[in-house]
Amino acid sequence: MEQENCARIKIFLSYQWNSQKNVKKIYSELVNFENVDVFMDIYKIKAGMNLYSCLASNIQQADVLLACVSRDYVKSKNCEREIIYADAFNKPIIPLYIEKIPIPELGSIGFVLVRERFCSFYRNSNVFENFGQTEEFNDLMQGIYSIIEKKNFSFSVPFVKKSNIEMIDETNLPQEVINFRNDKPIEEISMSPSTAHVENKSPAAHPQSKRKPEEVSKKQNFTFLEIHPVIKELKFLIHPKILLDPVGDRLFYENKKNSKRGGEIYYPPNGWIRYGLKVAMIFGHSNWLAKDGNSNEWAVVYSGFRNSPMKTELSQKLIDPMNGKFRPNLKNSNNLEFSNSKDVNPRSENFNKPCGIGIICSAKPDLAEIKTTPFSLNGIKYKMLLQCRANPVKMRIPQSNQELRIFNLPDHVRPYGILIKQI
Questions:
Q1: What ranges make up the beta strands (E) of 70-141?
Q2: What is the mean pLDDT of the chain?
Q3: Is the preceding peptide bond at 185 cis, omega within 30 degrees of 0?
Q4: Hey, which residues does 14 pair with through a beta bridge?
Q5: Helix (H) or strand (E) holding 264
Q6: Which of 58, 113, 68, 53 is nearest to 89 (CA)?
Q7: Is residue 149 predicted with pLDDT exceeding 80?
Q8: Strand, coil or helix: what is 162?
Q9: Is the pLDDT of residue 356 over 70?
Q10: Could you identify which of 156, 298, 318, 331 might form a hypothetical disulfide with 288, taking C-beta atoms 3.0 to 4.6 angstroms apart as the criterion?
Q11: DSSP at 248
Q12: CA angle, 208 as apex, 202 and 213 as ends, to 5°?
C-alpha cells in the first residue's frame, strides 16, 4: 500500500437509531484524534447528497467498521446490510456490544461478528458517562491500533489529540437518514434536491427481481448496499483491489430520453443496472466523463461479450495480464467485415478513409445486447455489457453500418461501467 494513501485511518460507525445518543459519544472521542476520519451519517450526510452512494463509498473506503451492537441493531435489516457489505469488501469489523446478546440471538450477522475481536460495553452501566476515560474505551483503541499495525500507515500509535476540538455540525439532518437508521421506508434513493445515482429520480427495482425492467413496480426500492449476485460472484472486482466506484451506480428506466455526449447522440441503457468502475485512478481527470458539452467530453458506446463474462472475458477486458492491475483494455475484433468500409464520421481524423481493423462497439445498447452472449447464475439468466466513453475524433463510423463504432487503438475507448440485465 502506498504511503500517501495511509496518512489517515478511516472509521465507519454502524448503529441503530435507538443507540444514537451513546454512539455520538464514541464519535466525539474518536473525531478529536489526529490522523483519524470518522464517518457517522448524521454528521456527514446532508441534504442533496445521495444516501446509499455515501454509505456504500464510505464502507468501501473504511479501514475498519465499528458495529455498535444492540438488540435493535440485530433486528435491523439496514444494519445487517452494512455488515454484509463490509464483509464482502473484506473490511475489519470490531463489534461494540452495547447490550449483552447471546451468540444464537445475533441472527445472520452473528456469522460475521463471531469471527471478530469485540468490545463489551454492557458490563459497565456507566460506560458512556465519561467514555474517554474508561477501560472500555482503551479496549476499543487497542482494537483499532491492532488494525493499524497490520497496515503501512504513516503515523504511529497511540493517537495524539487535536489541539483544537472539532465542532460537530448536527444541522440539516435529512429525514432519509433517520428513516434508514429506523428501518423505515425511504421513498427516493436520491435525497432531494439531488438527482444523482438513479436516473429520472424514479424508485429502483430490486436487482434479483424476475420481472423484466419495464414491468418493475415503482413501489420497489433498489439499494446498492445489496450487492448484485453477479457482482458478488466476480470476486476479482472487490478482492484484493476494489475496482467498483458507487458514484457511477445507476438504474436506468425505460422512459430515459436520448441526449448528447461528446457531440454524439447518447442512447441510455434503459432497463439495465450499472455498476461504476473506478476509472479516475487510471485515466486521471474526468472531463472525458462529463455530460455538459465541454470540448473534452467523450461519446458513449457499448461493448458486449462473445463468451460468458463470468469466466475470463470480463477480467481480460479490465485487468492487465502483465501485472494483474486494473487497466481497461478492449481487444480488436476478429470481424473484418467493416475494415474496408468508408469512415463517414465527419469529425474523424480519417474521414472518408477505410475504417481498418479495431475494436467494434455500438452506439445503441439494444444492438450491443443482440450481439452479446447470455449467461446463467443460480438458475437465472443475465446479459452484461460494458458502457464506455469514446474519443469522438478517433471514432470510425463504417458507411455500411452506421450504428457501429470502430476504434483502431484501445486508448480511444474507455469502459467506465458494468451493465447487467436479467432476461
A1: 93-97, 119-120
A2: 83
A3: no
A4: 67
A5: strand 264-266
A6: 58
A7: yes
A8: coil
A9: yes
A10: 298
A11: G
A12: 45
DSSP-derived secondary structure letter, 133 = G
- Start-to-end CA distance of the chain, whole Å, equals 40
Eight-class DSSP state of 30: H
* Number of neighbouring beta carbons within 10 Å of residue 384: 23
Reply yes or no: is the peptide bond before residue 240 cis, omega within 30 of 0: yes
- The dihedral of CA 12, 14, 18, 19: what is its sign? negative
CA angle 276/279/285 to nearest 5° reads 125
Question: What count of residues does the chain have?
Answer: 423
Count of Cβ atoms closer than 10 Å to residue 44 Cβ:
16
CA distance 55 to 60: 9
pLDDT band at 226 (very low <50, low <70, confident <90, very high): low
Cell output for 304: 458486449
Instruction: Determine the Cα–Cα distance for residues 301 and 314; give it in Å rounded to an integer.
Output: 17
CA 249 – CA 82 distance, rounded (Å)? 17
Greatest extent of the chain over all pairs of C-alpha atoms, in Å: 80
**What does the alpha-carbon distance between residue 29 and residue 206 come to, in Å, rounded to a whole number?**
38
* Rounded Cα distance, 382 and 390, in Å: 25
Q: Enumerate long-range contacts of 292-295, CB under 8 Å, 24 or more apart.
A: 293/260, 293/263
Given a cut of 70, is residue 193 above it in pLDDT? no
Strands (E) located in 134-263? 250-251, 259-261
Distance of alpha carbon 56 from alpha carbon 50, whole angstroms: 10
Cα 36 from Cα 144, distance rounded (Å):
11
Distance, in Å, from the CA atom of 57 to the CA atom of 45, rounded to the nearest integer, reads 12
The reported pLDDT for the residue numbered 12 is 97
Does the pLDDT value for residue 250 go beyond 80? no
- Which triple of cell numbers denotes residue 234? 466476480
Alpha helical stretches, state H, 62-128: 71-75, 77-88, 110-113
Name residue, grid cell 444523482: 196
Nearest-angstrom CA–CA distance, 233 and 244: 14
Cis status, amide bond into 158, omega within 30 of 0: yes
Question: What is the distance between the alpha carbons of residues 21 and 109, in angstroms, rounded to a whole number?
Answer: 23
pTM of the predicted protein model: 0.63
Q: For residue 370, which of 299, 421, 312, 314 has the smallest C-alpha distance?
A: 421
